[in-house]
Each structure stands twice: as structure tokens, then as C-alpha cells.
Amino acid sequence: MGNWIPIFVVVTALAVVLQAIVLIALFLTLRRTAEQVERTVSDLDTKLTPLITRVQILVEDVSPRITGIVADASDITRMARGEAQKVDRILNEALERLRMQLIHVDHILTGAMEAVEEAGSRLRQSVWGPVMRATAIVRGVQAGVEFIRSARQQKRGRVDPIERVSEQQDEGMFI
Fold this sequence. Notes:
This protein is mainly α. It is 95% helix and 0% strand. It has one domain (4-174). It has helices at 4-156, 161-174. 0% of the residues are buried.
């Protein structure tokens, strides 16, 4: 067992040296990578800083304009809403007035139609009633005259007076 200890010490020493070499290689690789990252960040910073500055200046320049446009759009919207409400109110008032005028015209026309109808009824009663009575009297007189005429003619021997009167009355119905 005594012989194995130097071998273990040598193997352990070689492992420690190998481990140190790997760690040094890792350190060097990380240092190179860090330098590359630092160069890339520096390049990006030199390229992006002017661009960011320009964008910031543009935003600062355009920001008041955008704010003004939004304020103007808000004012226009408010005014349009107010005008739409006014137009709606005016149209509602005009429609209400039109409706009232139509109701008024309807009452006037209804009254006029009732007056014309009443006048027609009175005209029929006052004019046609007497005309019908006069016509009946005239027909009665005609029938009497015809009866007398036919009686005279019968005496002479020509036509039956009753037949003659009924023919005349039938003719009067078709006239």
C-alpha cells in the first residue's frame, strides 16, 4: 500500500494541473467574448445614440402638434355633436308644428265637409221636396186631363180612357 500513495499524488497533481489549464482556457475565452461584447455594445451605442437623439427630437417636435390635433379633433367632435343636437331639436319642432297644422287643416276640412253635407241635405229638403210635390200635382192634373180627354174620345168611340191613363202613367215613370 505504500507504493500507491506516490502514484495517487502524481495523478492528483496531474488532475489539478489539467484543471488549472482548463480554467485558464475558460478565462481567456470569456475575456475575449467579453471584449467582443463590449466592442459590439460600443458600436451599437455609437450608432444608436444619434438615432435615438433624432427620434427624441422628432417626438419633442411632433408632440405639441399631435396634442393640438387631438385637441382640435375633440373640439370638432364636441361642436358636431352640439350642431347635431340643434338640428335634431329644430327638426322635432318643425315636425310638431307640421303635425299641429295637419290636425288644424283636418278639423277645417271636416267642418267644411259637414257644412256641405248639411247644406245638401237642406237643399234636398227645401228644394226637392216641393219640386216632387209639384211634380205629383202636375201628374195628377195631367192624369185628370187625360182622363177627361179619353172620356170625350170614348164618347166618340175611339179608346178606352182607363187604358189610356195607365199607358201615360207608365210613360211618366220612364222619363
